[in-house]
Amino acid sequence: MARDDGKAAAARRPRAETPRGFRDYFGAEVAARKAMLDAIAAVYHRHGFEPLETPAVETVEALGKFLPDVDRPNEGVFAWQDDDRDWLALRYDLTAPLARVAAQYRADLPSPYRRYAMGPVWRNEKPGPGRFRQFYQCDADTVGAPSVAADAEICAMLAEALEAAGIARGDYRVRVNNRKVLNGAMEAAGLFDPAEPDRLAPERGIVLRAIDKLDRLGEEGVRALLGEGRRDESGDFTKGAGLSAAQADVVLAFLAAKRADGPATLARLAEVVGGSAIGAEGVAELETVAALLDAQGVGPDRAEIDPAVVRGLGYYTGPVYEAALTFEIADEQGRPRQFGSVAGGGRYDDLVKRFTGQSVPATGVSIGVDRLLAALAARGRAPAAGTMGPVVVTVMDRDRMADCFAMAAELRAAGIRAEVYLGNPRNFGNQLKYADRRGAPAAIIEGSDEAARGVVQVKDLRLGAQIAAGASLEAWKARPAQAEVPRAGLVAAVRAILDRG
Amino acid sequence: MARDDGKAAAARRPRAETPRGFRDYFGAEVAARKAMLDAIAAVYHRHGFEPLETPAVETVEALGKFLPDVDRPNEGVFAWQDDDRDWLALRYDLTAPLARVAAQYRADLPSPYRRYAMGPVWRNEKPGPGRFRQFYQCDADTVGAPSVAADAEICAMLAEALEAAGIARGDYRVRVNNRKVLNGAMEAAGLFDPAEPDRLAPERGIVLRAIDKLDRLGEEGVRALLGEGRRDESGDFTKGAGLSAAQADVVLAFLAAKRADGPATLARLAEVVGGSAIGAEGVAELETVAALLDAQGVGPDRAEIDPAVVRGLGYYTGPVYEAALTFEIADEQGRPRQFGSVAGGGRYDDLVKRFTGQSVPATGVSIGVDRLLAALAARGRAPAAGTMGPVVVTVMDRDRMADCFAMAAELRAAGIRAEVYLGNPRNFGNQLKYADRRGAPAAIIEGSDEAARGVVQVKDLRLGAQIAAGASLEAWKARPAQAEVPRAGLVAAVRAILDRG
Prior knowledge:
The structure is a homodimer.
Chain A: H1 6-12, E1 25-26, H2 27-46, E2 50-53, E3 57-59, H3 60-63, E4 79-81, E5 87-90, H4 95-104, E6 113-122, E7 134-143, H5 149-164, E8 172-178, H6 179-188, H7 201-211, H8 214-226, E9 229-231, E10 237-239, H9 245-255, H10 262-273, H11 277-295, E11 303-305, E12 319-330, E13 336-347, H12 353-356, E14 362-368, H13 369-378, E15 391-393, H14 401-413, E16 418-420, H15 428-437, E17 442-445, H16 448-453, E18 455-460, H17 473-477, E19 482-486, H18 490-500
Parallel strand pairs in A: 2-6, 8-11, 15-16, 15-17
Antiparallel strand pairs in A: 3-5, 4-5, 6-7, 7-14, 8-12, 9-10, 12-13, 13-14, 17-18, 18-19
Helix pairs in contact in A: 2-5, 5-11, 6-9, 6-11, 7-8, 10-11
């Protein structure tokens, strides 16, 4: 009878691969992220925010086209058609679903509605090193509060959340700015006319994206993008906003308005926006935010006004803010560089209006949890939650498996993490290697000899050196860190090892 | 100038709707699920299982076609093509991704590998009442352990997990069976020949699905499906397996083999499988599982052998198990009915083989967390985690917002959940309604009069009756549950109310 040969069978086998741009998270990685999310959620909760969990899937219609990279508004989501009806997509952030919820349940939600949300979001982008197509966000937003007091609350809460997540005070800075001040500078530069708010909008969009790249391109790079355009190292040319040198000067003066302290910066900003009413409104809002940060005990070592912060998103209408880590890490080439932004947000008064036609004030922040975890790892401070392995009960004899199970159950009933070795028990060395691999603090041995005498061997694996690959049972038992105890003393003996630390 | 009229604008507005078959979870719902997942994860962790988080997205190739509803193997997933390359899909369970991981990282994972995973899964099915296209699963699996000791461990752990989740002992039962016993009964009925294992596979598939419907259709319904077929109430006809009456008798004898206790059931099963070697092997495995459950202190009040449990999935190869809630709830028509299954699993030794060509033993359970939450709600025992609202600091005067922020920050620094009212402060009645809506235990008032005298009003909202919609500030202050305290005594006064409570 004809049978498939091995090769043909192999050719039909599916590839065991994570899809391109996605990754798996194991053990301590999962525990560390959970510990961080729990710590941040506790801060949000203490501030009166309520959890909300929307589905991963939204209609494309509800999501809209508000992806951060405004250069490519039509791309970036994973989408498909649902049974020849609606187009569905995976959410690309947690803000668009909130806007949908705020519109859908507007009669039932408290107003203002403070909510937090955490979970994965998806971007259909070209993956790169450290750049994944699924990652976690952890957001807090206030919907229905027109006052910038809501923005000040979120900025202070962001500082507390970062500290709860393990970022030391001094290692981060929350930077606050206001789009109205930017619009005031644009008005002073002749790029914005309150009487015709839509005129020159494309040019202002280019300006926005150009100044958002200040960190990366420096002042000269931004100046080029404000003017005719810029050719990058690869030779690609990015068309600029076409501003005159005088106009570019006003924009660059805005970006460079930061002074030694908040009041001095505010005074300088008032000069830059000149007679612009919207600009003056923005400066006044920044003053209020600064006063309310102070009232909450958030000083300049934690939050500051920084005109260079603009945030790339087109939909912000007032205060914008971000949190950057201030320490340096080594890049792939070993060169020191700033870690940079780990959270950002702002006021977006028009997102809910898309659905209802009525403007609903809203403001909120998104923390990039995966970047924050990477930062902690770079500082050598990754949370150690749940990294201790279980006590491993070894199996000397398949026929006494029930005894092994009873011992593990006894340990667990005492609150001690424990498991029975469930591989092939014949090679005892493999059991020791397994216990080592699992980071087990202790191993339990009960051979027929021990069983007959009513005792067990308890081995302290944290004291012992690395277990040699081929260690025999006898050699292992001879080590000093092993003790024979009465069977009834099992739990006490293990607890003594754990307490020893 | 021509402007859009309201109608045209409304026509262009997106609908604010959760996609068909999806839902949003608010506040206490999110907190209750999180509390349940945390409780179950703690049990899994204590048993030595490690967390694993795979992405929501897998290649269609890696997922395979193992959806539970084996009648429609080609449907049921949300899928799309990735940039004209691989087809991608949302995972429909947590087992298929585990099989992919076990194959992909087989050189790096400990063996046996115990892992747990929790998160949403997606099914592209017709939504119905209480039937959603995204729901949570909470799985634990052991890969690489050939012994049924691994199955016994998971069955005992399942009982503990259900109790940790709030299901009282006596309100659930873990039921264990073994596909090998079923195959033995099939062999006894002439439906399975170990020498030609693939022959009559379609008929056996129909038998499997028929007996999985015993709960719903009763013995007569199953007998019809074992024979020529069955016409349901709507008039639809389901083709049967075509068994003779004598063959059907053997299968039905298997299903009815449960006796008063485990040993009696095992003895009866040994009779039903007759001389079948595979059947005898299955009975012996069930005996081992029973002994190991006993060793872990899991008695017949928590787990039992039940031949009627077969699980619909085609891929199980040995032990199968499920947990059912034993209490009755009222259905939509108010009639009492069994709540039924909330968790299920079994041994699937061939899933990893799809990728590697080598058989890898594996067994695991999946808990349907959303069904379990519904069960707790039906018993009036929904976890109350995080349901207390924040202390609300009211705002009498916009100019003293900084004072309000300072008070809220002070309360939070003392560990008390607190927020400032951020809506329009002009109508004080709205602030009181808001505090009521938020479930606030207390409200703080500091008018200009209080500020001048260095005091604040602290209102105990849990003592007071429902706040009347239009209550005036004066009427509200007059209530006995309100106290004037020195500003410096704010935290102590609020804590006294919380402790009272």
